[in-house]
Amino acid sequence: xxxxxxxxxxxxxxxxxxxxxxxxxxxxxLATGLFLAPLSAQLDDQAMRRALAIAxxxxxxxxxxxxxLASGASADSPVQSSxxxxxxxxxxxxxxxxxxxxxxxxxxxADRIGLPVSTDPSDALAGREVMEIDEGTLGRSxxxxxxxxxxxxxxxxxxxxxxxxxxxxxxxxxVIPGLLAYAGGALAAGALAAxxxxxxxxxxxxxxxxxxxxxxxxxxxxxxxxxREGVIALAPDGRVRLVNDEAAxxxxxxxxxxxxxxxxxxxxxxxxxxxxxxLSGRVTGRDLLTVQGPRVLVxxxxxxxxxxxxxxxxxxxxxxxxxxxxxxxxxLIDALRAQDHEHANRLHTLxxxxxxxxxxxxxxFVTEVAGVHRTTAEQVTEKVHDxxxxxxxxxxxxxxxxxxxxxxxxxxxxxPDRLVDPGGLVTILGNLVDNALDAAAGSAxxxxxxxxxxxxxxxxxxxxxxxxxxxxxxxxxxxxEGWSTKQPRAHRERGLGLALVRxxxxxxxxxARAGEAADGGAEFSVVLPEALR
Length: 533
Description:
- This protein has 15 helices and 14 strands.
- It has helices at residues 12-59, 62-70, 78-90, 122-125, 165-205, 210-226, 245-250, 257-260, 266-270, 274-280, 317-355, 359-383, 387-402, 422-440, 497-507, and strands at residues 94-99, 130-136, 139-149, 155-164, 230-234, 240-243, 288-292, 295-303, 309-315, 406-409, 447-455, 458-465, 511-516, 522-528.
- The longest helix is centred in the first third of the chain and has 48 residues, at 12-59.
């Protein structure tokens, strides 16, 4: 049943305030009742003990026992006088002395002397002390009964003392106003606290109704887990609040990790690295690139009012691959354009030789031109037996020639056609050769040397260039995503090639390092264990 059908306010803050007031009032009433219940029993016990103490004091007077034995039951007997004196002195309702037959020897009403008592005196006459709340001829009272002993210790009667129950009830009723005042004060304090708390909740919930909050939460869950963008929410202390399905997929987490990650530190979920630094805010900026596993991600981080943050992730892996393919295509087009120009020159040269009748020179010229390209391809395929790698090196050699760089294979190069993952090695070699060509292009004697060899089942790749080299202080930093000394291109950012090289190598249990070549320049080495069948 909705709050509107019950006549309750619709706003969440009003419902919370009413609920808190009802709880505070209920607690005050319950506490008052719980206090009054034992108080009533405590007052009854006090009255009974007081009556018993008076009876014990009266029975301890030897004159009272002697009077019971010596005189009869009359209004002017010494027993009546002593009992009335004790009653007036203690404020008791009555002090009744009775003999072994249960006959009253004293009573506040003289006409009742000589009559049997209205309640059973057997326990007291048997030597036992009695405390009770009972109804008698004088009404309801708290009673204490003790045996009356003679000088020789023999029981000669009993003493019964009563405290009017009205006085006990008056004491209880006298406590109630003060108790209610305390309860009212506590209720007022609770109401004030409830009001202040409801105001704070009103600010935090922006005065929404419970149904609105529930709807927003449902929409939030549906949106977060349906969008094709990764979302990670972080608490102020760096712990993960939420990971949606797309973020779990992009970060390589288990499919059911979206709930298991909650409450854990970000470094425990992702491990140390650039991705954790970007998401935690230690690296700042917009559209930051990071590599997580095989994926290239673009991350943005937005702080929240409570000191936490929400980070979004976009998959840029395919775009990065397209960018690299575009770079390769552009390089190939440039090479083809240059080759077309060179081919036209060669055809003109051949045509001139034929028109001059120099047929033998024409044959030699054609043979020389065709042999250069055939020699390059044969040299590559003799040492690199994998067709993908061989094709890559032949293509890179053509590009290098057009850029004025000599690309050659080291004499120790020999790689059999037994690669487990040739595609991964193509990516690694392509990135390293591209970087080496860029570095060597401006040197005095442009040179890039590639060495591929097998050591048991391990594949070793070395790429050397004649460029300026890599400073020793930067040889680890260059493998960080986004680090580059080159100007970014229009269609994609720099600083991912070497990061991908290291990630691909480490994913196979290998390593990627930068060093200095023997003749100067840079040398990049990659070791891939178990890369050959």
